[in-house]
Design goal:
The chain has 330 residues and is mainly alpha-helical. The chain contains 14 helices and 2 strands.
Length: 330
């Protein structure tokens, strides 16, 4: 892969559903809010382990593990915003913050941005790179998908991140993700990740003990956070059959009607308005809730442009149990 291939512009929505013009204010960024949220959530995932070590009480250790897993998931959302250059006003600041968050999470900004933008352009189609997470042929209802989620909770994703490829059987070789590690951008990603992990390890070791880094930083990320991210991506995209029954369903335009607990763990900052992110990929996640309300008042056709789903766990569980994922009127 050549470096030029990673110089991408903001992806347009490929949906056959027309997105009406919206006020420019929805595209405005707030760098102060972005800085505070990034610092707070990064502070939680790095500091929760040492804080629990200082208290040295097993319920606090459990709480620390859960907090790190959930707030690391929130950093995935913030990293996603940086991929789209949406978190800060400055494009360069988005790149720097995205690289730092990627380093802390053990992912890669350039790798992620390239394939995420392709996902936007080709969502649900045969060359959508995210099909590895939600394709019904690769993850049929029943035990296969149950074990897929269980393997994420068991930490298999760390192997995938290290090798930068995802295994599939002979029937789904089209879902293989190529490995562009040889590019300059990937080298920078890996260097930033190694540096970030070294700094985090040193900081946690000084504040507590070396094993806290493994038990209350790395372990939650490669188990709980991986599980949360897998369920989020799966439930926001999966179809129970090969084709959707409506244009909105075919375009994976789903509003995940999740409760507060699910939003804390699976999809923070309004990202559960998944349909709006695909219809308006240039709108910052923080403003999707307000945009949803604005469209309800100003676009009479808006209710037909998306499908409501009953949250993340319920959608995934219905699929695993081979129950219909029933579209409901918004």
């Amino acid at each position: 892969m050549q470096s030029a291939e990673l110089s991408l512009e903001q992806p347009e929505s490929p949906s056959r559903i027309a997105a009406i013009p919206i006020p420019r204010s929805f595209y405005d960024r707030c760098s102060v809010r972005a800085t505070v949220l990034t610092a707070v959530n990064l502070g939680v995932i790095v500091g929760a382990g040492p804080a629990a070590y200082a208290v040295n009480w097993w319920p606090i250790y459990i709480l620390a593990f859960l907090l790190v897993g959930a707030r690391a998931q929130s950093l995935y959302i913030l990293q996603h915003e940086c991929m789209h250059w949406l978190l800060f006003r400055s494009r360069r600041t988005n790149d720097i913050c995205g690289m730092l968050l990627s380093g802390a999470l053990g992912t890669g900004l350039s790798f992620g941005r390239f394939y995420h933008f392709k996902h936007h352009r080709r969502v649900g189609r045969s060359d959508d790179p995210n099909l590895i997470w939600h394709d019904s042929a690769l993850h049929p209802p029943g035990w296969s998908t149950f074990w897929f989620f269980a393997s994420q909770l068991a930490g298999i994703r760390v192997i995938n991140l290290v090798t930068r490829r995802y295994q599939s059987n002979s029937a789904t070789n089209r879902l293989m993700v190529p490995n562009p590690v040889g590019s300059r951008e990937m080298f920078v990603d890996l260097a930033v990740t190694a540096s970030a992990q070294a700094v985090i390890l040193a900081g946690i070791w000084v504040a507590s003990a070396w094993w806290v880094y493994g038990a209350f930083f790395l372990l939650p990320l490669v188990t709980l956070t991986s599980f949360l991210e897998a369920v989020r991506s799966f439930s926001e995209h999966v179809l129970p059959g090969e084709r959707g029954t409506t244009v909105a369903e075919e375009g994976r335009l789903f509003f995940m009607d999740a409760g507060r607990i699910e939003l804390f763990f699976f999809s923070q900052f309004g990202f559960h308005f998944h349909h709006l992110h695909h219809l308006y990929p240039g709108v910052v996640t923080f403003k999707l809730s307000s945009l949803h309300q604005w469209l309800q008042q100003n676009d009479a056709s808006y209710p037909g442009k998306y499908v409501r789903r009953d949250g993340y766990l319920r959608t995934a569980l219905r699929y695993v149990l081979k129950q219909p994922i029933t579209p409901q009127a918004a």
